[in-house]
């Protein structure tokens, strides 16, 4: 290793092989059997449990935990997966501290919730490691559905439709399925190629064909899909990224955080990934945290996450903020980017301090930066889409869009948080509605 | 620090904590360690008659029941009496007693039911200098199949007969250890007393199977695919033992026969409860087998703190203190009316009280949309289930209705005077005083 954290500029190989492996190991290793039993025993089996209400996919959490406690993790996994076919990924990436675990009565009682997320992972990993797919397809209906986007929403929708006996074709613009699970989540949250394994496992249901490299608008048209299929589900996510609209934004070293995260996730050799010595990430959401933490883990000397409002307004959860801080990321708040300075390559970025209403103060600060990642939000891309609600596709409760026969869910659809678990719920619920409409059930 | 000195039927020990006759007291090495740790006395592992010793199984002797985090709650054993030669045990007892004259050493005995056998072993035992003997009429497995242990303890006539022989052939205090595997514990206790025994000790272990292996369908513990019932002990048996101790303590005909309390004693508090219900001292086994001899330090400090707090200067002041408060159901006050009260500040909104009451009891707890749980006084029978299932201590309590107030469930005014079932109008056997 010739480079170190001190090497100026954007360079690869700042760490030893051991350091890379250690930095990108599993954030929360799977509980062992005894740990799982002890954790499961803390569940009170609440009546009409608040954790279920807090789960976007309504997993029967007390039941699955009791199933773990009684030595039947496979049964627990089925309880989870019946509601949430991507329960394995959600166990890894859900912000449980703002969902089920925040609602846990033990959080109220002791500030220490039952480890619901880790127990969910214990159960789903146990089943998936056996290669067991616990669901069966219903008798083929002969109905065909197109799903656009092989992310959590699309895969969830496709699986539920396939279970009901429909034939599904999933189209995705990228080279492989998985969506943000595969391309957009910090590596240490889903080690060992889990996203890919989960997709393979999910597809075992049968009746689902995946066609990659097919982008809506260029390779596919919604009109054609509508004509060829009995129903269309759009789970296309947010393909665009917001720009800073600043002078100097096109300088070398300035790029989108999502591209950095994607490159990192797809890298076979982390030591080949260049990273700056002084990295600045602009934004306050999960993407910003994922980029900042991973830049630090790749060996950057200084990583600053700069958000324009106060810390309590950040979209990243407290857990994520604490994680970033624990990894050595400096979180700077109330600073709005004003200018990117450099001579072809970024050298400094200038911020103006702003209050929570973004009122300018006239006071500025410059941060040294040889690499800048923009993480200030993603946007819906595409033409001839169904009617929008704001900047996303307008939908009803079960994902119906303004176009007859077209449903939508996940990040591209209005309403709901931009979370994997929300996408899974929306895909599942749309699938049920599509199923009902395809088989012509009255009601 | 309170004086914990115990004098049980003339046997003195620095504290009332004895180790029960069991594996922890099977040999000199263990007993020396126990005394070094601070135990007041030991009942040496049961001695059998001279000759070739018994043999134990060579597979698992114990099975267990666990609670959360694998905390051992109940232990089952199929071990027999000592499997070492009689003389070896006697020599060891002699040596240990000589080195620890202030500690109690009791010889537990089990020989066939004939006078000569008892006479013979009593003579041998007396030479050790031990402080007393305990007749093992309790072991429910193995020995009972040979006409000893619980096979004796389950027949009051045998209990009385053997006690009588023993009193005839030794000057040592005689304790009769009772089996709980019997319908009415007072009968063998009475027989022991009538036979002249100085004390009873109880309970021995309870017939039990700890579990079944659901792959090979063998009861556990399993020996080569088969299982036999064993004797159950540990924290799980404490309520059964407490009741049996109390039954003896409160039966007038038993004349206050001294009791050595045994059965799931794990902490100082357990010991104090046994003593309050009439036990003069306690014997411990499973707790020591689970945690080692060191636990006696907690028992000593805990009982001492408690006695200081209560102003007791002798353990005898604690013994039997709860016995007068043990009653029969028919004498419980039916005019004592309580209602459950939920402390909303302590409530963590788990809803277990609601589920328990709604599904299995009296539909006396309401649940609002925002998970506020309230007691419906008109339905609450004060059963206490909500208190028992609530995970937060003191969140739900029972509040007594003051005399003069109306019980919304019955519509009746709570009366001040005591009234029980014997005088209740619904009692067909009611023979109220004229």
In terms of topology, how is this protein built?
The complex is a heterodimer of chains A (443) and B (434).
Chain A: H1 17-23, H2 33-41, H3 50-54, H4 61-69, H5 73-83, H6 87-93, H7 100-103, H8 105-110, H9 116-129, E1 144-148, H10 152-163, E2 167-172, H11 180-183, H12 194-203, E3 208-212, H13 222-228, E4 231-234, E5 240-241, E6 254-256, H14 257-266, E7 278-282, H15 286-297, E8 302-306, H16 318-326, E9 330-332, E10 335-342, E11 346-354, E12 360-368, E13 371-374, E14 378-379, E15 388-389, E16 392-393, E17 406-408, H17 420-439
Parallel strand pairs in A: 1-2, 1-4, 2-3, 4-17, 6-13, 7-8, 7-13, 8-9
Antiparallel strand pairs in A: 5-14, 10-11, 11-12, 15-16
Chain B: E1 6-8, E2 11-13, E3 17-19, H1 28-37, E4 41-47, E5 62-66, E6 72-77, H2 86-99, E7 104-109, H3 115-126, E8 132-136, H4 150-153, H5 156-169, E9 174-177, H6 186-194, E10 199-202, E11 206-208, E12 211-213, E13 218-220, E14 230-233, H7 238-249, E15 259-262, H8 268-276, E16 279-284, H9 286-291, H10 295-310, E17 338-342, H11 352-360, E18 365-367, E19 373-375, H12 385-389, E20 396-400, E21 406-407, E22 412-413
Parallel strand pairs in B: 3-4, 3-16, 4-7, 7-8, 8-9, 9-10, 10-15, 15-16
Antiparallel strand pairs in B: 1-2, 5-6, 6-14, 11-14, 12-13, 17-20, 18-19, 21-22
Helix pairs in contact in B: 3-5, 5-6, 8-10
Architecture overview:
The complex is a heterodimer of chains A (443) and B (434). Chain A is α/β, with parallel strands linked by helices and 443 residues long. Helix content of chain A is 35%, strand content 17%. In chain A, strand 7 (278-282), helix 15 (286-297) and strand 8 (302-306) form a beta-alpha-beta unit. Chain A is globular. The relative contact order of chain A is 0.14. The mean pLDDT of chain A is 95. With 434 residues, chain B is an alpha/beta fold. Chain B has helices at 28-37, 86-99, 115-126, 150-153, 156-169, 186-194, 238-249, 268-276, 286-291, 295-310, 352-360, 385-389; strands at residues 6-8, 11-13, 17-19, 41-47, 62-66, 72-77, 104-109, 132-136, 174-177, 199-202, 206-208, 211-213, 218-220, 230-233, 259-262, 279-284, 338-342, 365-367, 373-375, 396-400, 406-407, 412-413. In chain B, helix 3 packs across helix 5, helix 5 (156-169) runs parallel beside helix 6 and helix 8 (268-276) crosses helix 10. Chain A binds chain B through residues 34, 37-38, 41, 44-50, 105-106, 108-109, and chain B through 68-70, 348-352, 354-355, 367, 371, 391-392.
């Amino acid at each position: 290793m010739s480079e170190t954290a001190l090497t100026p500029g954007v360079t690869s190989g700042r760490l030893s092989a051991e350091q890379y492996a250690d930095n990108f190991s599993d954030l929360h290793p799977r509980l062992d059997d005894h740990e799982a039993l002890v954790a499961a025993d803390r569940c009170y089996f609440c009546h009409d449990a608040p954790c279920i209400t807090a789960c976007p996919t309504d997993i029967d959490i007390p039941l699955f935990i009791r199933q773990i406690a009684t030595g039947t993790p496979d049964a627990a996994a089925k309880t989870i997966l019946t509601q949430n076919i991507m329960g394995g990924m959600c166990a890894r990436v859900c912000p449980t501290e703002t969902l089920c675990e925040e609602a846990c009565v033990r959080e109220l009682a002791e500030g220490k919730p039952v480890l619901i997320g880790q127990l969910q992972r214990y159960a789903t990993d146990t089943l998936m490691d056996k290669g067991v797919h616990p669901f069966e397809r219903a008798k083929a209906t002969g109905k065909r559905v197109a799903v656009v986007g092989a992310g959590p929403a699309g895969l969830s929708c496709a699986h539920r439709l396939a279970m009901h006996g429909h034939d599904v074709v999933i189209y995705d613009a990228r080279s492989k399925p998985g969506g943000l699970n595969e391309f957009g989540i910090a590596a240490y949250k889903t080690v060992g190629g889990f996203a890919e394994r989960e997709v393979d496992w999910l597809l075992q249901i049968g009746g689902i064909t995946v066609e990659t490299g097919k982008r809506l608008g260029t390779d596919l048209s919604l009109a054609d899909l509508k004509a060829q299929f009995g129903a269309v589900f759009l789970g296309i996510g947010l393909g665009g990224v917001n720009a800073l609209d600043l002078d100097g934004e096109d300088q070398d070293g300035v790029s989108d955080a999502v591209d950095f995260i994607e490159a990192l996730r797809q890298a076979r050799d982390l030591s080949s990934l260049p990273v700056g010595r002084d990295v600045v990430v602009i934004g306050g959401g999960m993407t910003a945290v994922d980029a900042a933490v991973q830049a630090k883990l790749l060996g950057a000397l200084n990583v600053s996450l700069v958000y324009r409002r106060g810390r309590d307004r950040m979209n990243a959860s407290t857990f994520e903020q604490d994680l970033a801080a624990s990894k050595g990321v400096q979180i700077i708040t109330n600073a709005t980017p004003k200018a990117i300075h450099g001579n072809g390559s970024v050298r400094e970025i200038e911020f103006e301090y702003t209050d929570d209403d973004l009122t300018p103060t006239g006071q500025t600060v410059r941060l040294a930066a040889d690499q800048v990642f923009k993480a200030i939000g993603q946007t819906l891309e595409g033409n001839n889409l169904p009617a929008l609600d704001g900047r996303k596709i307008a939908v009803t409760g079960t994902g119906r869009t303004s176009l007859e026969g077209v449903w939508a869910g996940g990040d591209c659809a209005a309403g709901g948080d931009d979370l994997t678990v929300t996408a899974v719920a929306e895909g599942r619920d749309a699938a049920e509605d599509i199923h009902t409409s395809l088989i012509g059930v009255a009601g | 620090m309170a004086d914990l000195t115990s004098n049980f039927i003339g046997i003195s020990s620095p504290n009332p904590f004895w180790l029960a006759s069991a594996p922890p007291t099977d040999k000199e090495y263990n007993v020396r360690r126990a005394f070094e740790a601070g135990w007041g006395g030991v009942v040496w592992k049961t001695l059998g008659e001279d000759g070739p010793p018994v043999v134990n199984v060579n597979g698992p002797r114990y099975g267990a029941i666990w609670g959360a985090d694998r905390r051992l709650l109940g232990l089952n054993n199929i071990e027999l009496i000592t499997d070492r030669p009689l003389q070896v045990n006697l020599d060891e007892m002699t040596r240990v007693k000589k080195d620890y004259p202030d500690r109690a050493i009791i010889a537990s005995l089990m020989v066939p039911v004939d006078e000569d056998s008892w006479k013979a072993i009593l003579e041998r035992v007396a030479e050790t200098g031990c402080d007393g003997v305990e007749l093992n009429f309790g072991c429910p497995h193995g020995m009972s199949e040979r006409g000893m242990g619980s096979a004796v303890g389950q027949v009051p006539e045998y209990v009385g007969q053997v006690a009588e022989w023993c009193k005839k052939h030794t000057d040592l205090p005689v304790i009769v250890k009772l089996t709980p595997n019997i319908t009415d514990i007072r009968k063998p206790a009475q027989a022991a007393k009538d036979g002249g025994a100085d004390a009873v000790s109880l309970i021995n272990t309870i017939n039990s199977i700890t579990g079944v292996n659901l792959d090979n369908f063998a009861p556990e513990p399993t020996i080569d695919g088969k299982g036999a019932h064993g004797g159950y002990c540990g924290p799980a048996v404490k309520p059964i033992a407490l009741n049996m101790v109390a039954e003896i303590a409160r039966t007038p005909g038993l004349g206050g026969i001294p009791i050595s309390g045994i059965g799931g004693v794990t902490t100082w508090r357990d010991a104090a409860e046994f003593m309050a219900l009439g036990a003069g001292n306690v014997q411990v086994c499973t707790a020591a087998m689970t945690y080692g001899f060191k636990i006696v330090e907690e028992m000593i400090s805990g009982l001492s703190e408690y006695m200081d707090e209560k102003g007791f200067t002798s353990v005898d002041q604690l013994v039997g203190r709860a016995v007068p408060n043990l009653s029969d159901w028919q004498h419980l006050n039916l005019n004592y009316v309580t209602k459950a009260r939920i402390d909303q500040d302590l409530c963590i909104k788990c809803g277990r009280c609601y589920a328990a009451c709604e599904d299995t009891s009296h539909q006396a707890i309401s649940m609002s949309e925002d998970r506020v749980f309230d007691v419906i006084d008109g339905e609450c029978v004060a059963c206490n289930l909500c208190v028992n299932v609530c995970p937060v201590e003191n969140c739900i309590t029972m509040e007594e209705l003051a005399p003069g107030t109306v019980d919304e469930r019955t519509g009746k005014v709570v009366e001040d005077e005591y009234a029980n079932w014997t005088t209740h109008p619904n009692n067909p056997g009611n023979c109220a005083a004229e």
